[in-house]
């Protein structure tokens, strides 16, 4: 039973990998960016767990800036992904422009809230 | 020509009138003495002369003088009142119980002496001031153990007492050696009344009763509960002396020698003269009158008084206290004046340090609580005027830019935010130029 | 094809005509919304109403005088003496910043309006904006016709008028506008999937957080809607784009506002948004993986994840629940708890229960406040189901939740009003649609055009056609695709169909319902009549019911109009006859007005943040004179202000509020017990009142010398004669009573100079003057 599940798991991972390799490189860049942001967020959470949450606003702004960039990048990925039927009329330049605007607002707020 | 001289004399008298009782010069100047009959002027002349010799203008009037009035056109004509008229039922002129009480309530002093013929009016004045004479109108103080020894066998109504209050301010720095002779009625003082003090109490063996009739029930007043001479310092620092013996001020008792029964000490002169003179000095504000001026506070390093402080500021506080010596203001030197920084309860309580010249100062840190605080100086000591000063000052919390600019523990968060921004920048370049 | 070109040019002409018409209609709606709120200015004067607006007005004055940095850091030492209040951190700055900006812009254009004028007219201006926002929102849900109808309904709905008349300078004036705009931008993002609108949505949400504490409604409603969409199988990537950036940016922006601060991440009111944030990420991941894997592999993945993930999930949720349950209120604030459990406030927090706005509404108030819309709302809900789209499901959720909350607190009828207007607008517009189409199809000569006019909605009254054709068409298809269950499309209002779609559409058109001509004409007339009834009621409500400034009262009697301006008289007296630093104690209702108009320091005011302080004042009012004097003296109070309505019949006076003072005081100081003031459970002030009641400070200060007015002391509000008629005040003295005895001001007597001895005063026989004075006084005042 366990062996079948492990075999299934392996087969699952293989198919996941093969499907992922097929994605276009621009999307892979976005995915890399998202991973970077999430990784930074996790480091900050670990740091907070160690040191304590004293300047809570700095902690919040740091973590939320990472989470925010991850979310916005995912939104960009959704809009730019050619397989997504809903957005096939959206020019990718428009999507990127919206993405830049949203990030600008995010970083402005982060700078204000940081301390 | 004569008219001109009179005019000039009248005009020059005006400043003298202005020299009367004022906050800058608190000693009374004009004293009104009300008497039952004018023979008291001579029978109590030593006392009156001692007052006159200190520079007072003493005005003698009969208690039922129809032209009697304490004030004219809203101004008081006298600064102090001595009521040596125990049997008067009704004052003459426009004076009455309410008038006497208003006189006291406007800050003027009073010496009231009663004796066994005390009328209801005098008793009511005393009650309004906080002193209760014995309700039995025929009772006088009798002491079978502490009476004055004399040639004739008396009924022990002339008693001696040396149970003085321990206060240098009221009774002077010199101790009264000889006991005081007393003949009159007893009064009691409510222990809960914080404004009244017993200056001379009777000995434990005294009691208040009618000397010529047998006692049917135990006397209401007895022992040390009987007060012979009491003083009242009202909240506006008016001073009142109340005693049940007019004879205590008389020349006869002032000059006579005294020996307490059962005591071998024989004094050639009773302590009455020193006692009443020192007491009158205190009542007329020649001693023990304080003023506190110039309550100032400022931040350390500045001189102006700010309108608002911030929490955790350092500030300095100073106040000047002077004592009236009878002629001028002298610095008051003591080491127990305290200041409170008060908001519903004292957050800071510090003893002020003095520079021996009347300036008291201290410095402390504003507490970590914001709100509307008060600097409070409360100084109440036996015999001295009560000082109660307060100054309101708000204390605000930190402004948004008064916190630490960069907190060291937060550097990782700053770093993370900036790396995110840099990452965004790099990502957009890479993404845009990716083929 | 010539015919096609002709029809397309006709169509563009009609579209152009329609958009111009709708622009002018919107302009008129704005003017209507503004002018219907001007009744109080015309009937009384341009004055700020009620209590809370005075505080906002004072804050705005400070802002315009001192600038934004001082306002941000303002520590107010003239209220809640001696605790003070940090205004910067405890006030919602949206309203004051808006009015301040407006004033500054006007002044820089050299239009010298005073701050008071700007404050008074802020609410009508923003109600015009709110109706335009309703148009936009309803257009996203159903279409332009519904949008215009909803806008006109919102411009006039009495519930909204009650809180936004000219002079009602309170948070709701701008908050409702912010609410509707935030919803509109959310729906727009949901419909278009554009990140640009998501950014605007976050900014609008920020404006809402700045303005009103009711922003928690948004941050709970939107996650609920997202959850609903996920659960009903309507998940799409547009949903993710609409929701996830809002949560991140919105939380950040909400934390920026000082009064919210860290509550944006720490209180239970926001946990729903975080929970749904996590859920939507899980769902997105699932869909993504489903998209890139084959079906068999997907099943394997599901079993694997479910087995492992479930354990992890349960652990996390258990930790979270333990954390939340450890706090006594489970992380909710008192006001939110009283919303969820309507009986909570009366049991635990008497202050919240005592505010009249927090009571549940009565049934007639629904008809008074939304009138005809109460009948149209259910029709609108049904119309939203046909077809069900994301936007209409949101509208349905909005109306359901707001109906519940409006039933808990009368103040939240205000949040219910826009939802009701949207629903009614949809219903009315659909009904008009059906009837006019029936008439049009049955009138001769027009039925031939049915094929080409398939998409037109040419009703006689209101029409609106969107400008852009292509994005609308894609919008339509996008909206309809997820609703697989809807077969019936009769009543659907299709915006514009291009020629190639006309054929498919016309097939559907043939199944449209067409009512008989007479029935539709009569029905149309009835609908117009219904609308007229609504308009008449709204104008009447605005003019009579909701325009009272409550600082000036009027009454009509046989000899004309009486104006009671007692409040301002009393505040002016205080301003001119007392020292600047004197402290005034009164019940908390009048705190804001006293600081704003009389400019004196008060002990407690309407902010009611410190229950102990209010309880201290309440205890003092309920105690006998000496104890009350002690309490007030410890707070450095100089003057006491009471409001008394017994002479003129003003029912909201302090004697009627007195039991709340007892309850609140007794909640903190147990020696004040409410049964001591009631006789047999009844609250009385006549001769049957309890001695505690007859000796308390409030009774004495209200009825001092009242018997001198008519000899009997008849209280017109309580409709009885008072119990204790001859009152002697020992520790207070009366310094001012206004013209109609409505406000009475007393001063604390300083402590007595001498303390009396214990002997009773004896009357001397010969002191004639004093005794005669006393005996004459005794004849008049038999002291109890």
Walk me through what this model shows:
The complex is a heterotrimer of chains A (115), B (435) and C (784). Chain A is mainly alpha-helical. Chain A has helices at residues 2-21, 25-51, 56-80, 92-114. Chain A has one domain. Chain A has 4 helices and no strands. In chain A, helix 2 runs antiparallel to helix 3 and helix 3 packs antiparallel against helix 4 (92-114). The mean pLDDT of chain A is 85. By secondary structure, chain B is α+β, with helices and mostly antiparallel strands. Chain B folds into 3 domains: 21-212 and 219-283, Rossmann fold (3-Layer(aba) Sandwich); 289-400, Immunoglobulin-like (Sandwich), CATH 2.60.40; 404-433. Chain B is built from 9 helices and 28 strands. Chain B has helices spanning 2-18, 40-43, 45-53, 97-105, 120-129, 168-171, 251-255, 272-283, 411-432; strands at residues 30-35, 57-62, 71-72, 75-76, 80-84, 109-113, 131-133, 140-143, 159-161, 163-164, 180-182, 187-189, 196-201, 206-209, 227-233, 239-243, 258-259, 266-267, 289-299, 309-310, 314-324, 329-331, 338-342, 346-351, 353-354, 359-365, 371-379, 387-396. In chain B, the strands form 8 sheets. Chain B has an 8-stranded mixed beta sheet with strand order 2-1-5-6-16-15-13-10, with helices on both faces. In chain B, strands 19, 21, 22, 25 and 26 form a 5-stranded antiparallel beta sheet that branches. In chain B, strand 3 (71-72) and strand 4 (75-76) form a beta hairpin. Chain B is elongated. The termini of chain B are far apart. The mean pLDDT of chain B is 85. In chain C, the strands form 4 sheets. A 5-stranded mixed beta sheet of chain C has the order 6-5-7-11-10, sandwiched between helices. Chain C is globular. Chain C starts with a helix and ends with a helix. Residues 447-509 and 764-784 of chain C have low confidence and may be disordered. Chains in contact: A-B, A-C, B-C. Chain C: Residues 753-764, 775-784 have a biased composition (Basic residues). Chain C: It is a multi-pass membrane protein. Chain C: It comes from Dipteronia sinensis. Chain C: Component of the oligosaccharyltransferase (OST) complex. Chain C: Its cofactor is Mn(2+); Mg(2+).
């Amino acid at each position: 039973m366990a062996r079948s599940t492990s075999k299934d798991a392996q087969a699952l991972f293989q198919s996941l990998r093969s499907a992922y390799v097929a994605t276009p490189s621009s999307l892979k860049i976005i995915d890399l960016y998202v991973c970077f942001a999430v990784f930074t967020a996790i480091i900050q959470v670990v740091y907070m767990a160690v040191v304590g949450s004293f300047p809570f606003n700095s902690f919040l702004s740091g973590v939320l800036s990472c989470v925010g960039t991850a979310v916005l990048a995912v939104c960009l990925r959704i809009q730019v992904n050619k397989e997504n039927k809903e957005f096939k009329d959206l020019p990718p330049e428009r999507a990127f422009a919206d993405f830049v605007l949203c990030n600008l607002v995010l970083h402005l707020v982060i700078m204000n809230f940081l301390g | 020509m004569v008219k001109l001289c009179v005019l000039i004399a009248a005009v020059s008298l005006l400043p003298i009138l202005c020299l009367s009782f004022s906050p800058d010069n608190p000693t009374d100047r004009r004293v009104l003495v009300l008497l039952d009959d004018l023979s008291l002027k001579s029978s109590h002349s030593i006392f009156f002369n001692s007052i006159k010799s200190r520079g007072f203008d003493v005005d003698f009037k009969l208690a039922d003088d129809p032209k009697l009035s304490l004030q004219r056109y809203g101004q008081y004509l006298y600064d102090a009142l001595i009521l040596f008229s125990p049997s008067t039922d009704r004052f003459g002129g426009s004076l009455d119980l309410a008038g006497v009480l208003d006189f006291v309530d406007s800050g003027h002093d009073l010496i009231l002496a009663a004796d066994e013929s005390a009328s209801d009016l005098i008793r009511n004045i005393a009650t309004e001031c906080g002193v209760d004479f014995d309700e039995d109108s025929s009772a006088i103080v009798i002491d079978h153990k502490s009476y004055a020894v004399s040639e004739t066998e008396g009924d022990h109504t002339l008693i001696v007492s040396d149970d003085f209050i321990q206060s240098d301010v009221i009774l002077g720095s010199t101790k009264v050696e000889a006991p005081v002779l007393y003949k009159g009625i007893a009064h009691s003082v409510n222990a809960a009344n914080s404004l009244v003090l017993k200056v001379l109490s009777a000995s434990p063996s005294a009691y208040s009763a009618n000397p010529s009739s047998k006692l049917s029930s135990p006397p209401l007043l007895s022992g040390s509960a009987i007060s012979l001479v009491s003083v009242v310092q009202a909240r506006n620092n008016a001073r009142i002396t109340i005693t049940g013996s007019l004879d205590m001020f008389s020349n006869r008792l002032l000059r006579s020698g005294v020996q307490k029964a059962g005591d071998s000490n024989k004094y050639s002169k009773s302590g009455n003269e020193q006692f009443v003179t020192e007491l009158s000095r205190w009542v007329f504000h020649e001693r023990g009158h304080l003023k506190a001026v110039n309550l100032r506070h400022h931040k350390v390093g500045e001189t102006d008084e700010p309108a608002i402080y911030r929490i955790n500021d350092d500030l300095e506080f100073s106040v000047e206290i002077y004592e009236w010596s009878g002629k001028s203001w002298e610095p008051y030197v003591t080491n127990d004046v305290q200041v409170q920084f008060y908001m519903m309860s004292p957050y800071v309580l510090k003893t002020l340090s003095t520079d021996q010249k009347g300036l008291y100062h201290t410095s402390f840190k504003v507490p970590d609580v914001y709100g509307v605080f008060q600097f409070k100086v409360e100084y109440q000591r036996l015999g001295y005027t009560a000082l109660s000063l307060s100054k309101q000052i708000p204390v605000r919390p930190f402004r948004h830019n008064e916190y630490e600019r960069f907190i060291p523990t937060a550097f990782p968060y700053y770093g993370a935010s900036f790396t995110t921004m840099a990452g965004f920048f790099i990502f957009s370049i890479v993404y845009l130029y990716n083929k | 094809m010539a015919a096609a070109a002709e029809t397309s040019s006709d169509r563009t002409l009609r579209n152009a005509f329609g958009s111009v018409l709708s622009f002018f209609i919107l302009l008129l709606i704005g003017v209507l919304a503004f002018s219907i709120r001007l009744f109080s200015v015309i009937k009384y004067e341009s004055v700020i109403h009620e209590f809370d607006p005075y505080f906002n007005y004072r804050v705005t004055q400070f802002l315009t005088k001192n600038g934004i940095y001082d306002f941000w850091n303002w520590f107010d030492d003239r209220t809640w003496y001696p605790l003070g209040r940090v205004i910067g951190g405890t006030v919602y700055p949206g309203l004051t910043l808006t009015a301040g900006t407006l004033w500054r812009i006007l002044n820089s254009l050299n239009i010298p309006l005073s701050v008071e004028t700007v404050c008074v007219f802020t609410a009508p201006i923003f109600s015009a904006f709110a109706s335009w926002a309703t148009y936009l929102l309803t257009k996203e849900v159903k279409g332009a016709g519904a949008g215009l109808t909803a806008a006109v309904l919102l411009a006039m709905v009495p519930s909204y008028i009650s809180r936004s008349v000219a002079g009602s300078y309170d948070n709701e004036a701008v908050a409702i506008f912010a609410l509707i705009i935030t919803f509109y931008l959310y729906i727009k993002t949901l419909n278009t999937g554009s990140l640009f609108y998501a950014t605007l949505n976050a900014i609008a949400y920020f404006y809402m957080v700045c303005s009103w504490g009711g922003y928690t409604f948004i941050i709970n409603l939107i996650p609920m809607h997202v959850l609903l969409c996920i659960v009903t199988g309507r998940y799409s990537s547009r949903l993710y784009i609409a929701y996830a950036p809002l949560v991140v940016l919105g939380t950040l922006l909400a934390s920026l506002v000082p009064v919210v601060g860290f509550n944006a991440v720490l209180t239970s009111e926001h946990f729903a948004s975080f929970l749904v944030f996590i859920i939507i990420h899980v769902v997105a991941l699932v869909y993504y993986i489903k998209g890139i894997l084959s079906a068999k592999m997907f099943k394997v993945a599901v079993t694997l994840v479910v087995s492992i993930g479930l354990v992890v999930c349960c652990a996390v949720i258990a930790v979270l629940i333990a954390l939340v349950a450890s706090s006594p209120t489970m992380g909710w604030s008192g006001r939110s708890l009283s919303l969820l459990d309507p009986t909570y406030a009366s049991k635990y927090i008497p202050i919240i229960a005592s505010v009249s706005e927090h009571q549940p509404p009565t049934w007639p108030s629904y008809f008074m406040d939304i009138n005809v819309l109460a009948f149209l709302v259910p029709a609108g809900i049904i119309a939203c189901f046909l077809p069900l789209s994301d936007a209409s499901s949101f509208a349905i959720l909005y109306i359901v939740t707001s109906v519940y909350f409006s039933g808990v607190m009368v103040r939240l009828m205000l949040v219910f009003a826009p939802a009701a207007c949207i629903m009614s607008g949809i219903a009315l517009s659909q009904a008009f649609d059906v009837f006019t189409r029936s008439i049009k199809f049955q009138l001769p000569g027009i039925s031939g055009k049915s094929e080409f006019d398939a998409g037109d909605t040419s009703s006689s009254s209101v029409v609106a056609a969107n400008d852009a054709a292509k994005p609308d068409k894609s919008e339509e298809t996008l909206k309809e695709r997820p609703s697989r269950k809807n077969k019936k499309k009769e009543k659907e209002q299709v915006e514009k169909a291009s020629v190639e779609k006309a054929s498919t559409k016309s097939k559907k058109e043939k199944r449209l319902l067409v009512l008989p001509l007479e029935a539709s004409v009569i029905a149309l007339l009835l609908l117009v009549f219904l609308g007229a009834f609504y308009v008449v009621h709204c104008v009447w409500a605005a003019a009579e019911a909701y325009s009272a400034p409550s600082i000036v009262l009027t009454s009509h009697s046989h000899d004309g109009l009486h104006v009671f301006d007692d409040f301002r008289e009393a505040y002016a007296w205080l301003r001119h006859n007392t020292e600047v630093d004197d402290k005034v104690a009164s019940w908390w209702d009048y705190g804001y007005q006293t600081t704003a108009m009389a400019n004196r320091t008060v002990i407690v005011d309407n902010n009611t943040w410190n229950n102990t302080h209010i309880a201290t004042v309440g205890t003092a009012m309920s105690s006998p004179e000496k104890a009350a004097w002690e309490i007030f003296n410890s707070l450095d109070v100089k003057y006491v202000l009471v409001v008394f309505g017994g002479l003129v019949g003003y029912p909201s006076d302090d004697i009627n509020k007195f039991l709340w003072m007892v309850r609140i005081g007794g909640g903190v100081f147990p020696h004040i017990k409410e049964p001591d003031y009631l006789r047999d459970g009844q609250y009385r002030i006549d001769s049957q009142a309890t001695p505690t009641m007859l000796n308390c400070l409030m009774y004495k200060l209200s009825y001092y010398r009242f018997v001198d007015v008519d000899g009997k002391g008849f209280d017109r509000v309580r409709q009885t004669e008072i119990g204790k008629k001859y009152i002697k005040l020992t520790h207070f003295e009366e310094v001012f009573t206004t013209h109609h005895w409505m406000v009475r001001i007393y001063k604390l007597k300083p402590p007595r100079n001498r303390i009396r001895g214990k002997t009773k005063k004896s009357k001397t026989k010969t002191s004639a003057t004093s005794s005669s004075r006393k005996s004459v006084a005794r004849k008049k005042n038999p002291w109890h």
